[in-house]
C-alpha cells in the first residue's frame, strides 16, 4: 500500500562519524569520508543514514555535548560539507538523519556561558538551577557518568543540574524561550533538506529534579507534541526518539499513527536482559533467552496497528551483538547472520550500526587505550570501590561503549583503510580478516546476507505489515515466529545457540513451504538445526 509513510519500508544505517572514514589523515572520521563511502552504502541497500552528532562540540562525550547546534564541528568539516553530503546522498536515494541532543547542551554553548554569568542574565533560565550552600546538595540524584547530578557554581551560589557529565548541563524545557530556540534550529536544518532526526534521551527533557523524576516527566508528551507541530509535521521526515524508559503503552503515544509525536522510538527493554536485575549494566549475567523472546514478542504484538517499532541490536553505546549474543569465534559468520535474521523479519524499521554488516567484534584493550568517558569513569569508580581490576576489565570487555566505536574496517591495509594517520581509537587487530573489501568479494559474507535481508523487505509486504506470532515460546534454543498478511505467511526459525538440535516445529508448519533464505548452504534435514542455523520460509 503506497499510502504508507516511506520510513515503514526503509532500513536505516547508523554512522558514528568519528569512526567511519577519515579523509584528511588527522585520524578522525569526517563528512567527506562519508561522501567517499556512499557507493558502499548504496550497494548494501539502505535508505537512510543516521549520523551521530556532528555539530560543534568540545567532544567531552564525543559530540553529545553540543556548543553550537547550527554549525558543524571543524573536526568533521563545515556546513558546506554537510550540504554536500545531503545532496550527494540524495543522488544515491539515501536520506540523512541528524542526531538532536536537546536534553542538554555543552557547558561551552554560548547560552550556558551567559547563563552562569549572573542570575539576571537573560540566558540564566535556559538551564536548571537550584539555590544552595556549597557542600549541601539539593538532593542525592546521581549523574549517568558518575557523581552527583548537581554542580556548584560559586559566583552564583547555585547548583546546575546535569544528567550526564558536568560538561553537559541540562536545558530547561519549562522555559518557552528555550523551546522556541530549539524549534527554530530544527526548522533551519529541515530547510537544508535533512530526512529526519534521532532525538537523544528525549524522555528526559521534562525532568522534575525536586521530585527526583528524570524519565517520563508529566509534561513530556505536551512538549513533544508541541515540537512535532512546530517542526517535524511541516516535512515528510523519519523521527525516532531515544526512550530508555518506554513501555509499549508509552510507545503508542510516541509513535501514534496520527503523526502527533514521532515516527517511532528506540526502546531498550531487550537490551538489559544480560545484567543482574536492578543493578548496573556492568554487573553481568547470562542472557535470559526465554525473556528475550517474550519481550520482543510483547513489543511486536502491542504496537501492531497502534504504533511502530524500531529494530536494533546495536548502536554506538552497545557492545557488538555478534560478541554479545552470538559467537565471535568459531561461528562468527553463522551467528551474525542468525541474529540479523531474527531482527530483520520482525515488524518495524531496522537499524544497522556501522560494521554490524561485517560482523565486527568487541575488543579487549589496555585501560589507557580506551577513550570513552563512561568507560574511563566506571574504571575509576569501581577501582575506588575496591573491585578487582580483572573484574572491572571483564565488564568493560563485555559492555564498554568503545567496543562499538573502533574504526570501521574497510580493507587489509594499515589501520584498516580508515585513516592514513594515527586513529583516535585503536583499530581492532582482526581487521585483516574482517573487512569490507573481503566481504564484498565473498558471496557468503555477512554483508551479502544483510543485503539479501534488505532486499526481502522490499520484496515481501508481509515483512512490513504482517502480524507477528511467537512460536515455541518456552523452547530454550529456538527463536521461531510467523508473520501473516492476508494469505501470505512467513515462517522464521532460528537456532540461537551453538549446538546441533532437533527442530520441533508445530505440525501445521510441516507442510509445503519455500525456503527463501538460510545461513547455511545446506540443511541437514528439516528436522535438524545446525549451530546458529537460521531459515526463512514462505508457507505455500
Ligand atoms: O545515551 C543515553 C543514555 O542513557 C546513555 O547513558 C546510555 O545509557 C549509556 O550510554 C549506556 O551505558 C545517549 C547517547 O546515545 C549517548 O551516546 C550519550 O552519551 C548520552 O545520550 C548523553 O547525550
Ligand atoms: Ca578527518
Helix content: 25-40%
Gyration radius over CA: 23 Å
CATH class term of the largest domain: Alpha Beta
List ligands, each type once.
1-O-alpha-D-glucopyranosyl-D-fructose, calcium ion
- Topology, number of strands: 20
Strand content: 15-25%
Give the strand order of the largest sheet, numbering strands 1, 2, ... along the chain: 11-10-9-5-2-1-13-12
Q: The CATH topology of the largest domain is what?
A: TIM Barrel
Domain Glycosyl hydrolase family 13 catalytic: 14-405
Pfam family, one: Alpha-amylase
Family: Belongs to the glycosyl hydrolase 13 family.
InterPro entries: GH, GH13_cat_dom, Glyco_hydro_b, O16G_dom_2, SusG-like_C
Describe the protein in words.
The structure is a single chain. The protein contains 16 helices and 20 strands. By secondary structure, it is an alpha/beta fold. It folds into 3 domains: 6-103 and 176-368 and 408-450, TIM Barrel (Alpha-Beta Barrel); 110-161, Alpha-Beta Complex (Oligo-1,6-glucosidase, domain 2), CATH 3.90.400; 464-539, Immunoglobulin-like, CATH 2.60.40.1180. The strands form 5 sheets. It has an 8-stranded parallel β-sheet with strand order 11-10-9-5-2-1-13-12, covered by helices on one side. A 5-stranded antiparallel β-sheet has the order 14-15-16-20-18. The longest helix is centred in the middle third of the chain and has 16 residues, at 176-191. The radius of gyration is 23 Å and the shape is globular. The protein starts with 11 loop residues before the first strand and ends with a strand. 49% of the residues are buried. Bound molecules: 1-O-alpha-D-glucopyranosyl-D-fructose and calcium ion. Calcium ion is lined by residues 22-24, 26, 28, 30. The site of 1-O-alpha-D-glucopyranosyl-D-fructose has 13 residues, from loops.
